[in-house]
Specification:
Layout lengths: L2 H15 L24 H7 L3 E9 L8 E12 L4 E10 L2 E12 L4 E8 L6 E4 L9 E6 L11 E7 L5 E8 L9 E10 L4
């Protein structure tokens, strides 16, 4: 090797040492083909308006048409899983007794439907509900879905939830659905949420 060629090789090593190290590229998502990611959409934007601290007034209406059973409580709501789902944690006080409940609801951009799961300290079963029609941008309408092996539903219900334009009041109503065609829906429960002002 000539002296000139040797000088060029040496210079390239010296200059290369001053170059910043290249950042390693992040590996491709290994689950992208079998479980592609989905991006939050209009449903998540609506659910995010429900986030915060709320005082709750609940009324349960008996089948005999008597006076409703009333309770007060508090719910803390927050978006989880990178803004994909709304988690609600309830605490109620009624006749000196405390009960708790937890709900998780999400919206699927592909179908345009909401799905919710509910558990509480009163029962050892889970409750599931899902929309039948696509989100209209104004309210969340859910219909009970059976989790029993035979698919039969013992208590069919519908819930409608909406938030006022100012974002300070939520109204949640649950209706018992008729077991026979032609029957009437009956208001079973109503909850009114009032946002707690941040101090």
């Amino acid at each position: 090797m000539s002296f000139f060629a040797l000088l060029l090789v040496s210079a390239s090593f010296v200059l290369g040492a001053d170059e910043p190290a290249k950042k390693p590229q992040s590996p491709a998502d290994p689950l992208a083909k079998v479980e592609p990611r989905s991006t939050p959409g209009a449903g998540q934007a609506y659910l995010a308006r429900f986030a915060g601290e709320w005082e709750v007034a609940r009324a349960i209406y008996p089948t005999n048409g008597g006076e409703p059973r009333r309770a007060t409580g508090h719910v803390s709501q927050k978006m989880i899983q990178d803004g994909r789902f709304l988690q609600s944690d309830f605490v109620f006080e009624q006749s000196g007794r405390k009960s708790t409940g937890q709900g998780i609801i999400g919206w699927e951009p592909e179908s345009g439907l909401f799905t919710s799961i509910w558990i509480d300290s009163r029962q050892t079963r889970m409750s599931m509900r899902q929309s039948k029609e696509k989100f209209d941008g104004q309210k969340i309408v859910l219909i009970s879905k059976s989790l029993e092996p035979d698919g039969k539903e013992t208590r069919r219900s519908k819930t409608i939830s909406s938030i006022d334009p100012d974002g300070n009041k939520i109204v949640h109503r649950q209706y018992s659905l008729p077991s026979q065609p032609g029957g009437e829906e009956r208001l079973f429960m109503e909850m009114v949420f009032t946002r707690v002002a941040v101090k």
